[in-house]
Write a structure and sequence with these properties.
The relative contact order is 0.18. This protein has helices at 20-30, 34-44, 52-55, 58-74, 81-85, and strands spanning 2-5, 8-11, 92-95. A hairpin with a 2-residue loop joins strand 1 and strand 2 (8-11). It has one domain (2-95). It has 130 residues and is an alpha+beta fold.
């Protein structure tokens, strides 16, 4: 998995590749342990990348923010967790790599359209058959 953030690609952080300083910063700035980070990855896998459900779930947002922040740190960006959390969602894209498990969307589940303000769009009016 990679992230594309503001047009730049970042490799997703892997727990085994975090430095001790990264782990301390994870706890100090994001309030997460390594075990919680691993759980967060599993938790996030239950959401679509741009789903309203993920954006409405504080734990999911915080978890995504931690992964984005660590990816940026590992790429050499000097950014705090708080700064990383301020990255607009429109600028964050999850990019699958070869070998990543990607589930096809369920065609029986509809996701409501969202307006620019993050509010579900009103359904289209029904049209009577003539």
């Amino acid at each position: 998995m990679k992230f594309r953030i503001e047009g730049r690609e970042y490799a997703a952080a892997e727990v085994g590749r975090l430095s001790l300083a990264d782990i301390d910063a994870l706890e100090d700035q994001a309030g997460m342990t390594v075990a919680q980070l691993e759980e967060a990855g599993e938790y996030l896998s239950g959401f679509d990348e741009d789903s309203v459900a993920m954006l409405s779930d504080r734990r999911a947002r915080h978890s995504l923010g931690a992964f984005v922040w660590l990816a940026r740190l590992n790429a050499g960006d000097e950014v705090s967790f708080a700064e990383s959390m301020r990255t607009p969602m429109a600028e964050i894209e999850m990019v699958a790599e070869d070998g990543d498990e990607v589930e096809a969307p369920d065609p029986t589940v509809s996701v409501p359209a969202v307006t620019g303000a993050g509010v579900p769009a009103a359904p289209a009016p029904a049209v009577a058959a003539v």
